[in-house]
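Predict both folds.
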Amino acid sequence: MTPAEKLLQSLGIDDPKEIDLEAIAWHMGALVKRRPLDGCEALIVGNQRKAIISVNSLSIETRQRFSIAHEIGHWHYHRGRILFCEGRDFGSPTSPISPEKQADDFASDLILPNYIFLPIVRKIKRLNLKIVRDIAGQFRASLTATLIKLVMSDYFPIMLVCHSQSGRKWPCRPPSLQRFWFPREELDPESPAFDLLFRGGREDTIPRKIGADAWFDFRGAERYEVHEQSFSLPGNEILTLLILPDSAMG
């Protein structure tokens, strides 16, 4: 069990509705204040015993919640330091180990603790973005953070791929996925994801089937089919959920 999950259990929390981040911060000696911030999403200033967490009040609720949890992570790991957390610091699952990555992981475990999250996930019969949005709503988490948590749970043969118009930005792959299932750099023009990103297409309401060779270039990829479903992100980017064959897991 991770430090964040141990903290939640020590407080007797066993339901997503009980994850009150401001109360948790107060329990740890940190006061949360919301105010407009310029150039960063959040910052924490404190000594060894007390701290003030400032969060950008202009951001959406899920971003503010992640920012608070992220700063609580800094308070847990990096007490006594002053850290300014920009929006670009959050959320990429491929970031190298750093204070920001440590705080990101702590935030994920605080908002989406596995001991509450996984029993809900295991009840899913057919995966799609609507189901994940519903779960994200239960935890008051962003869709992106919930999807990353879902992928890293290693329960489904799925992956995430983030693209901008200049190409692939990052993939998020479950630990047990076989190594050759690694996505291409560029989107295939026949892919619904390409249509959404480059032609202003609409987001699909259900995953759509496509040949695996549209996404992967390993030998024999043309023998497989995958399902994809994408949604738009800020900054003219998209995030695609790929549902792979069961055999893709090692």
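Second protein follows, with its predicted structure tokens after the sequence.
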Amino acid sequence: MLSMVVAPRRSEPVVLHNADVPHDAASTMKVAVLAAVHRSGLDLDARIPVVNDFRSVTGGGYRNSPEWDSDALPWERIGGLASVRWLAGRMVTHSSNLATNLCLARVGQAAVDRVWRRAGATVSGSPRGIEDYAGRDAGAHNRVSARDLVRLLDSLEPEVLALLEHNVHRVDLAAGLPPGTRLAGKNGWFPGLRHSAAVVYPADAAPYVLAVCYTGPLANGRAAGDPAARLLARISAGVWRRRHALAGGGL
């Protein structure tokens, strides 16, 4: 299943393809957690314990697995302290699962739900932490749609959106753009799934938002070397070639 939405920045979409089909969120849900952290009123420079022990939505406990995490650095701080700001940054720049659950535990699930509702999401939600398999088995599914990812990016404060410009995983939508093109986005992947959503800032055209969600056999679950990532890059390149038509409502 391939879903796609293309829209001029903070404007109505000009391309809608399976826009409201729900997909497993993977790491795209980290954008909602990031927004919740920055809207929480927490002292972002407060240092909190780095632990690997989280409460499931079912009431039990669960842990993250370092083998499924794309960021080793937070794991090196287990037993120590790290600032909320640093953890939130690693969550979106290096897609740290451990940092995500630490941030989520700090702000609470309700705060993340408010982010989705404020964005106007109709399909998406993040009712559980990453690797809360008991919660998943009990029916708590992190879901996104391509349209809701566009809505989410459009709802972010400028300083929050700017943090997404430092995402180091530039193998899907970013790979379809000319080198050096500015974009702010987040991707997510595991076997059977590859999603990416970003605000793209061409130097010669108005900014636009592109969200692509793919669920299917092309996605091998690798951070790099994923055929599904190459598919998303080709889609991104095609939208880029038509960037001047977007402001007029065409593609």
